[in-house]
Amino acid sequence: SAVISQKPSRDICQRGTSLTIQCQVDSQVTMMFWYRQQPGQSLTLIATANQGSEATYESGFVIDKFPISRPNLTFSTLTVSNMSPEDSSIYLCSVTQGSGNQPQHFGDGTRLSIL
Amino acid sequence: QQQVKQSPQSLIVQKGGISIINCAYENTAFDYFPWYQQFPGKGPALLIAIRPDVSEKKEGRFTISFNKSAKQFSLHIMDSQPGDSATYFCAASIGGNEKLTFGTGTRLTIIP
After folding, report:
1. Do residues A43 and A92 touch, judged by C-beta distance below 8 A?
2. DSSP label at A49?
3. What is the pLDDT of residues B29-84, one digit of tens each?
4. pLDDT of residue B105
């Protein structure tokens, strides 16, 4: 399966600031997704990153708060804007490769704490 | 609305025993059911997955049982080992390439 690298692996940020998280894959992938995992909780999908077009956001997540880019088939970024302590979470990138029914693989995530 | 319900929330099993985690779903359009294993500080790793056209799938010590009529599926870990101690998530999607809806997770602890 693809090797997925996320940067940074962790960060501590001040409220009101923004942070951009990068997801780099070592081979071309079909789909890229961004999930949020709050401490001790399950994973919730934020959005599907679409190559060359606007991301598709899930209910409760908006582009102004979580702008996403996907300029090519191996790279995507998620920005967490105007952060508050409630944004303290693990943010995870996941990918699928190929066509048809393919499994989804995850990076190790970015652990974000907001002071 | 929680579309995938998972139980138990935590589970303690003796080494060599069988660990069983259960999930139930609501959306009958789901047709792909993976299980993920997550260790602290790591992302979820795909363990095993099943589609509704089979009732059971086995890979080594891990088995998924699927009951389409009851809309339930479960993970069985045979001969559980301390290295299996992790958090397990069931999930479901419509098509394998699509977004996943996760269960709430089960923290499994295997004791000697």
Report:
1. yes
2. E
3. 999 999 999 999 999 999 999 998 999 999 999 999 999 999 999 999 999 999 99
4. 97
Q: Which two tokens stand for residue A1?
A: 């399966």
A30 closest CA partner among A83, A73, A93: A73
Show the low-confidence residues of chain A (pLDDT under 50): none
Question: pLDDT tens-digit profile of A24-57?
Answer: 999 999 899 999 999 889 999 999 998 888 999 9
Question: Which residue out of B97, B100, B104 would a mutagenesis test of the A interface target, given it has the greatest number of A Cβ atoms within 10 Å?
Answer: B97
**Omega before B52 cis (within 30°)?**
no
Residue ranges of the alpha helices (H) in A1-115? Answer: none
Q: How many CA atoms lie within 13 A of B50 on its CB side?
A: 22
The CA distance from B56 to A113, in Å, is 41
Rounded Cα–Cα distance for residues A23 and A31 (Å)? 12
Is residue B1 over pLDDT 80?
no
Contact A45 B100 (CB under 8 A): yes
Contact A77, A68 (CB under 8 A): yes
Provide the 10 A C-beta neighbour count for residue B17: 14
Question: B1 to chain A: which residues are within 8 Å by CB?
Answer: none
Let me know: does A29 contact A42? Beta carbons within 8 Å: no
